[in-house]
Amino acid sequence: MNKIKNIGILTSGGDSPGMNAAIRAVVRASIYYDIEVTGFLRGYEGLINDDCMPMDRKSVANIIQRGGTILKTARSENFKTVEGRKTAYENLKARKIDALIVIGGDGTFTGANVFAQEYDFPIVGLPGTIDNDLVGTDFTIGYDSAINTVIDAVDKIRDTAESHDRLFIVEVMGRDSGLIALRSGIGVGAEAILIPEANMGVEDVLHKLEHSRKDKASKIIIVAEGDDAGGAFKVGEILQSKYPHYDTKVSVLGHIQRGGKPTCMDRVLASRLGVSAVEGLIKGERNVMAGQVNKEMIYTPFDHAIKHIDAEKVSSTWLKLIDILSF
Ligand code: ATP
């Protein structure tokens, strides 16, 4: 087995709280195992533009508690082209980088998979996305922080909703996945949630409101941005016309869900996964995502990790829980 001597690291796609903790863990573990680390800026754009810097112990000091990513992130259209990936490969070779660790979501791993196959290049991925929509890890880095941000925000909304007897429609992130809506909905005691996976529609929400507790002054409906119902404002319009006696308000939480300090759960997960990614590369793992399932560190091939729907994560049991608790 060839000894890995220089690992390149990058963060790609949407940022998530805990990416910095993951970068720190990769850098510190690499130094521990006598491997050099090169940090590429702005995701795959950094590989193509050869925009990078050497990383040492000190370069990752005092970042474990910071949101965002010190390596910056970007979406790179160039990396989707054959020429873009060729330039990236030539830059890596010129710098004698013999493996990559990429931190991102399904798009990042799709790109890594294409590149790894084209150039037979060892890559290990770390699940860095607030969406929690990857197969092969119970939780992604950033998910816990994001749902806690949602809970903080909706608790505040609940105070004003309760004072004014209001019905609030709160839109949370999740273009293809309702997992942020699902957990935060349970955590805030929502009356109903609308998520792309369940395909329920506003009719279902109407039904739930009809049957929910009449003595409850405030009502909260959580809508994932990717739900087919047409977005929180559309849902708000329909509910307002059906329930004119309710003062219906819409709140779109937006990018606050990506920011802020990572929770302890995310810092520890990122730290474990970062070390696991380096150790995986040393042991010969390639084209896999490092994940944590039932407390164990495991590696899942990219093409399986990006399969999106993890039936366990969006099971009808979770949806029923919301029905039971709001009854
Ligand atoms: P998030 O889940 O937070 O959105 P993500 O990793 O899914 O993160 P994307 O923007 O979907 O974010 O993907 C990140 C980058 O991965 C893209 O900007 C592009 O550079 C690369 N990428 C995605 N799909 C491909 C592909 N088919 N071929 C090559 N590169 C790709």
Automatic annotation (TrEMBL):
Transcription listed as a keyword: no
Named cofactor requirement(s): Mg(2+)
Residues at the catalytic site: 131 (proton acceptor)
Binding residues annotated for ATP, in chain numbering: 14, 75-76, 105-108
Record EC number: 2.7.1.11
Domain spans labelled Phosphofructokinase: 6-280
Enzyme class, first EC level, given as a word: transferase
Catalytic activity line of the entry: beta-D-fructose 6-phosphate + ATP = beta-D-fructose 1,6-bisphosphate + ADP + H(+)
Pathway: Carbohydrate degradation; glycolysis; D-glyceraldehyde 3-phosphate and glycerone phosphate from D-glucose: step 3/4
Subcellular location field: Cytoplasm
Principal subcellular localization: cytoplasm
Positions bound to Mg(2+): 106
Domain of life assignment: Bacteria
Family, as annotated: Belongs to the phosphofructokinase type A (PFKA) family. ATP-dependent PFK group I subfamily. Prokaryotic clade 'B1' sub-subfamily.
Function: Catalyzes the phosphorylation of D-fructose 6-phosphate to fructose 1,6-bisphosphate by ATP, the first committing step of glycolysis.
Record's subunit section: Homotetramer.
Protein name: ATP-dependent 6-phosphofructokinase
Lineage per the UniProt record: Bacteria, Pseudomonadati, Bacteroidota, Sphingobacteriia, Sphingobacteriales
